[in-house]
Amino acid sequence: MKRNAAGPRRRILIVDGYNVINVRKPVRESLQLEDARRRLTDRLHDYAGYSGQQIILVYDAWLSDRRQRSVERHGALEVVFTMKGETADCYIERLCDELAEDIALRRAEVRVATSDGVEQTVVLGRGAVRVSSRELLLEMDMAQQARGGRVSSSGARRPTVADRLPEDVLAKLERMRREQ
């Protein structure tokens, strides 16, 4: 594989969050939506750490009353909540458009994880590589096994009080934080 003269190409994985969450029926049924988002965010944070790629996790707020887009950064993981009227698909397509030149010049390798057939076709047309939601989950499982089990979602940082709290308490605290 030929590299550009400027150095190694950036590896970017864009994930349609709700599409990945909805792939596993037991997860949907056993977890509240907020818990499912947190679980996926934690897994992708770990995966970003040991895969060496930038990951952009997109959740759509198309039907919500969210007036503006929000972006949270967690190391190599960026979590995006779209604004009202904006689907995750639209955001992902726009992002692929912005990265199209880097893809064409081989400065970036962009993969998009979604099982939405139309979205897969659109991102392929923009030069990105499609990965189904199931393939992404399998890829993360295999990477985790290769590393010898679960890696802390906090990476190499020191443990915090939140690391020792039960999941239901963390969920309540998160709801309180978001209501402020």
Keywords:
180 residues; alpha/beta
Could you please describe the fold and organization of this structure?
This protein has helices spanning 17-21, 25-30, 33-51, 88-104, 117-125, 133-146, 167-179; strands at residues 10-16, 54-59, 70-74, 77-81, 108-113, 129-131. The N and C termini lie far apart (50 Å). Strand 3 and strand 4 form a beta hairpin. The longest helix is centred in the N-terminal third of the chain and has 19 residues, at 33-51. With 180 residues, the protein is α/β, with parallel strands linked by helices.
Low-confidence stretches: 151-158
Number of strands: 6
Specify the helix fraction band: 40-55%
Shape by Cα distribution: globular
Please give the order of strands in the largest beta sheet.
Answer: 3-4-2-1-5-6
Gap from first CA to last CA: 50 Å
Task: Please tell me the overall pLDDT.
Answer: 81
The helix-and-strand class reads alpha/beta
Summarize the structure.
The protein has 180 residues and is of the alpha/beta class. 46% of the residues lie in helices and 18% in strands.
Write the layout of secondary structure elements.
Elements: E1 10-16, H1 17-21, H2 25-30, H3 33-51, E2 54-59, E3 70-74, E4 77-81, H4 88-104, E5 108-113, H5 117-125, E6 129-131, H6 133-146, H7 167-179
Parallel strand pairs: 1-2, 1-5, 2-4, 5-6
Antiparallel strand pairs: 3-4
